[in-house]
Amino acid sequence: MSKQKKKAPVSKQPAPPPKAPAKPKSWWEKPLFHRLGLFLLGFLLYANTLGFDYALDDAIVIYDNEFTMQGAEGIDEILKYDAFRGFFKVEGKEQLVAGGRYRPLSQILFALEIELFGRSPMVGHLGNALLYGLLVMLIYQLTLLFFKKEKTDKARWIALATALLFAVHPLHTEVVANIKGSDEILALLGGLSAIYFSLRAFDNKKWGGHIAAAGLFLLGLLAKENAITLVAVVPLAYYFFRGLPLWKTILPTLPFLAAALVFILIRTSVVPLELGKPSGELMNNPFLKLVNNQWLAFDPGEKFATIFYTLGKYLQLLVFPHPLTHDYYPRHIPIMSFGNPWALLSLLLYLAMLGYALWGLLRRKPMSFGVWFYLLTLSIVSNIVFPIGTNMGERFIFMPSLGFCLFVGMGLYAIIEKRPAIRKNLGYAGIVILALLAGKTVFRNLVWKDNYTLFTSDVKISPNSAKLQNSVGGATIEYAAKLKDEPLRRAQLEKAVLHLKEALRIHPTYKNAYLLLGNAHNYLQRYEESIQYYDNALRLDLNYTEAIRNRAETYRDAGKYFGEKEQNPVKAELYLQKALKEMPKDYETHRLLGVAAGMQGKHQQAIQFFTLAAGIEPGNADAWFNLALAWRESGNLIESKKYEQKAFEIDPNIVQKRSRPGGQ
């Protein structure tokens, strides 16, 4: 027998311990959580505007714009004309602001809203809040993409800090709470999404993304022209965040240049780029001063000192956003010289920023990208490149503020890198600051409820703005007209008069203030003063249509007042004859002239005016009945009966109606 080999004993090794369950990811590690949270934050910050009315420039592009109010049928005209053409309704008036305005994208969206929902400010406010939430989310995504090559923690920290600061910043309330501000949101959305697709296409070497980038950028330009400054931002993004030499950044910038060229060709075919001579009206050119009753241009020192003062004001509001106002028209910003320390300090600050940006460019420091973004996007609205029609505006800082937020986000992370121990404390401090800014935003929204609330709130901040004093006066007149309590109505009208006179103190040749003063005095039944104010407006502009029409109606109202209230037919006839010269086919003027003539026993003259009145409104039973009464007063009962019968044929109840109190 062969020997059998003994089996080696099997060693029993202990079983491996069970794997511990994977640790759930924290919120910090969930970009989807970040995106959704930022979208909701951006939306909820402006959710309290959903019940608000239209305000400020909404009239120009929405409810007083004849093209927008046509709905989808008006889109053709929106594409063919300046953005202001549908508001002024008269060719040429849209050229009051240098360079014109061509922003069809947002206006087309407004027209579609009218088509689908009618006149609904809630839809407009909802749209702005949703677009803003989307923009905040995009800023986070784009910033992550900028820092794709950095460690994940750094990229998320900077992206969150940048997006959160942008979301809560109160300087954005004018853009988001005012429906018209969607042009700013869409311009930045289009520009940033184009940069995002461009970088993604570069990273993935899928060049079709560059075509998408060009299309998105063109949409941003069609929303608002200031997006064109992003053409200069694109090569810097590639230089700082993809390490390309500047000369190699030209290729990925070409789609943006192509889109810009297409936009310029479209725009100049619709709105010729004619800057021409600066406007001579202070409300369209803030760099004018009144010398010996003549408007003269600022000297260069005054102009640039005033400009740099406003540029410094932007920096102050970015760091400390208080107080806020929608109106920075003359003379909220006074005439400056470089003897003013704030104007000089602002100049030095901007020179330092430019120096830092150039230094950072040479050393490829990403923080300087934030400064470049701010300076480049601010340039077009700075009044240095070309006049924008006002000193400054919080909406103009909307796009540049992203550069500020990027700079702050990167700067805070640089501090943390050097001193990791303060990360938690810095986070707590950041939460407090963000909460305070968010609170300021929510409460600032409240003034955008409607024009009356906005104007009467902000005039406390901008009492030296002629435009705002005028706006308060106009809004107060409209508010007073709705009141039924006579003493309260008159008190509001007197308040309006004070604001309008203050507007004239600031801007003595403000024709619209004279017009509104005429309106206020008409409502107060101070007709002679009313006419005087209309005359003043017409001395400034002989073709001022509103003043011509309102003066004529005031002549008529004065005639009625002196005839009915003061029983003075002679004075009544004097004013009514003036009304007749300007309104030769006005039924009421002819009727009142007939009444005034009858009161003076001028029966044949009364018959003449009542006959003309009946010819103007032949379907008006009162007109024929008045004529019948005039013939009766003259002693001709046959003619009286004839016209009385004509009145009965039109309205069988004419006698009963005329016998009631207030019957004519």
Structure characterization notes:
- Strand 1 and strand 2 form a beta hairpin.
- Among the domains are: 157 residues, no CATH class; 120 residues, Tetratricopeptide repeat domain (Serine Threonine Protein Phosphatase 5, Tetratricopeptide repeat, Alpha Horseshoe).
- It is built from 29 helices and two strands.
- The mean pLDDT is 93.
- Helix 14 packs across helix 15, helix 15 runs antiparallel to helix 16 and helix 27 packs antiparallel against helix 28.
- It has 664 residues and is mainly alpha-helical.
Total strands: 2
Specify the overall morphology.
Answer: elongated
- Helix content estimate: 55-70%
Beta-strand residue fraction = under 5%
Q: Helical region count?
A: 29
- C-alpha end-to-end distance: 145 Å
Largest sheet: 2 strands, antiparallel
Q: Extract low-pLDDT stretches.
A: none
- Global mean pLDDT: 93
